Amino acid sequence: MEGVSVVICCYNSAGRIQETLECLQKQIVEREIPWEVIVVDNASADNTKEISKNVWQLNPVTELKILNEQIQGQTYARKTGVDNSKYEYISFVDDDNRVDPNWIKNVYLTFKNHPDCAACSGISTASFEKEEPWWFKYFEANFAVGKQGTQTGYVPLERGFLFGAGLSVRKSNLLDLYKKNYPAIQSGRLVNELRGGGEDSELCFCFILCGFRLFYNENIRFSHFMPSSRMTEKGLKRIQTSLGRDEVVLSIYRSIFNPMYNPKNKWWLEFLAYFKHYLRYLLTQFSLSGEKGFLFKTKLIYHHAYLAELVHLRKKYTNYRLKINEFANKNRK
User: Fold this and answer.
1) Is the pTM of this model over 0.90?
2) 124 pLDDT exceeds 90?
3) Whole-number pLDDT of residue 282
4) Domain boundaries, the chain
5) Which of 66, 177, 267, 331 could bridge 182 with an S-S bond, Cβ 3.0-4.6 Å?
6) What's the confidence (pLDDT) of residue 99?
7) pLDDT digits 0-9 by tens, 50-65
């Protein structure tokens, strides 16, 4: 059924969920666009559910569902939301995303006007709890902030993905991937584990392999809240580590679309090739200091994490590559 189901996956979101819901309560939606909000409590230890219910009762602009998912991990929480959704267009809004008043309308119209579009997203701006760190502008994309294209239109194959924060998908296309048993190697964010949002990029790559397209719409806008606890050098290093780990699998997907990526067939060959690349970076850092030195060393963390993940996956890497290529060969259009 055409309409928009907003799915918010929560883990201990009591301190963030109120403003997220209040932004949804301010939506400007025509009557012919049905929509709903689904809050999935992913084994929280706080009162996320109670706050969500109380906030919504003050202004129940549409139906709110509050669900439980006890298995930790964003992938499981999202699937629970999808399984219990009414509508064809699923909008994954994180608990720290403050969406624009026209969010529902623009997501709906994007899918409606582009039937070959399996996923869409737009522009994200940062909203800082305190002062913006000087280094943030160099790494904003790593925090799912910024533009995702030069202008409204289809996402080119060379990019092949959209930010996980604020990602909207067509439910029938997503269910089609489930039916085809897509690789789903990336587990997504887990509590106390340094992982990024690799499952979103993997999903986008698999959509493309199955003949669908991604769409970037500059009218789809939201603000991404950046708490001070995340805007530290330690927080930056954590996200660089998580993205570096995720990239080991994602680079296999990228190589299918982009000749710039060419990971080796065996993990040890990939390790040796990347290690040479890493050594050049490692030696360069000693010639830099100050801000340039900090930025370079921070980027070096990403490369170190990539190598560490290769070692971690040494017994699985070849099988992952075969699994991805098999899915691509079977489904690519």
Assistant:
1) yes
2) yes
3) 85
4) 4-227, 238-331
5) 177
6) 98
7) 999 999 999 999 999 9
Q: How far apart are CA 222 and CA 96, in angstroms?
A: 10
Find tokens 């582009």 and name the residue: 114
**Cα 163 from Cα 121, distance rounded (Å):** 7
HSE at residue 177, side-chain half, CA atoms within 13 A, is 23
Q: How far apart are CA 66 and CA 48, in angstroms?
A: 10
Contact by Cβ (8 Å): 80, 69: yes
Tell me the helices (H) and strands (E) count for the chain, helix number first.
Answer: 11, 9
Q: Which helix (H) or strand (E) holds 282?
A: helix 267-284
Nearest to 228 by CA among 51, 72, 96: 96
User: Does residue 284 surpass a pLDDT of 90?
Assistant: no
What are the C-alpha distances in Å from 126 to residues 63, 99, 106, 129, 137?
Answer: 29, 12, 20, 10, 10
CATH 3.20.20.70 fits 4-227, yes or no: no
